[in-house]
Each structure stands twice: as structure tokens, then as C-alpha cells.
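Hey L., structure's done. Input below.
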Amino acid sequence: MVKRPKIPLPLQRRVRQQCAFGCVFCGKPVFEYDHIIEYSKVKCHEFDNLVLLCRDHHGPKTHHCLNIDLLRAKRLNPYNRDKSISSPREFMAGNNPYMVIIGDNIYGVRISENIDESNFSALTIGDQNIISITFYREGGLIYSLPSINIRDENQETLVLVSQGEIQTYENDLRVGLQNWDISCANKTIVIRSAPRKILLSIEYNAGGFWLKRATLYDRQETITVNEKGVHFEQGGRISGQSHVGCLEGLTIC
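Output:
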């Protein structure tokens, strides 16, 4: 049996750009690559035959319950076209404790089982709360819901995770659509402004959130995050901190 080759990364990027970084039907930013005419028939990866679909729309397509002509039309005029921010996608509740890693700095908190609700500020810059975690009790268990608000130098949204209209066990994840490339998989978000120029790289799961790379903007200076810590444009670095059970994370005044 011949193993099916992966879709080349440059081709994946072209498809993401064509489909406006989301499902062509609903605009959700977490998607799967689909062959309009099945790969088993065409035996190749071609740009005009590839489209982005969320799981809700990929399933009906796979089971031949979706009109192919409509799918082709949606590919040419995707839902997110001409929008500045994507449709929301559920961002599920995580564990208690919940760990936040910023570069190589680790901040973790465990909420006491006697507390019904509590908020943990993981990253604050000036008066702006960039990353925070809300812990709440439901049915005898404690859940964590992260809130994230990361913007570029023009104060346009890069990633936004915020409470939806009905909060049960999830928040809403949205990504800004102005940049050159956005890759938003099940556990990773990477936003590039140009080839090999990463603006933001995030990994997350039920146990925590890792801000791996970022360029953050304060009124005073530009702050960069990478695997060696948090760096300040005017000099200085915050690196190697590890606090578990703390009351707050990193605050940059």
C-alpha cells in the first residue's frame, strides 16, 4: 500500500489564504484540509481541489451530503472574506491546576475546593490584562477558562478568547484575519506577518497554555517573547521564573 503524501506546506499556506483562514461555510478558524474531488480519485494534491472545512462541515462532505457545486462556490467566496476577525470556535474548559508558560517563565495556580469562583491574572501589561484564567465550580468540580486578548501594534486583534453569550464549559476563540498567514490547529495557533516572520505562537491543552513566541506592544516599548524569556526593547529580560500556587503571574508596568 502506497502511503498518501502530505500536502506540501507552501500549498497548505496558499489554501489557507484562499479560504480566508477558516471554514469556507462558517468561518471557524480551526479546520481540516479537504479534497473537493476525493484524493482516492485524483491521486494528487492540487490547489484548485483543496478547501478548508471545520469538522461540522467536513463530516457531511465526506458522507456525500454536501453539494459539490456549492462547495466550489464557497471556496471562491469564503465566509471570512472581507472580515477583520474570524467566527468564534469553542475553547473548552481546562483543568485545575492550570499552568501558564510565557516564554520560559512558568506560572501555575490551584484553586481551593472551598472557592466557588476565582480569577488569576497570568499576564498583564500596563493596565491591559493579556491572559487571565477564571476558575469556577460546577457540579462539585472546578474548571478553568482562559481569557486571552493579544493585539498587534495597531491594536488589531491577533487572538481573542472571551466569554460567549452562554458560559457553560467553554469560551469563544477568534483570530484576526489581517495577517499574511494564520495556522490554527486543535492545539496550536501560529500567526505570521511574512514568510518566516512569526508574530504569535501559542500551544494549549486542558492542562495549560504556552505563549511560545509573541510580539507585544506597550505604550512605552515593544516586548518580545521567545524560548529564552521575555525581552524588552530598551534592555532587560525576564527569564527562568517558576511559580506554582502563586496569586498572580507576570505584571509588566
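Residues 188 and 203 are 4 Å apart (CA to CA). The helical segments are 9-18, 39-42, 55-62, 68-76.

-- N.
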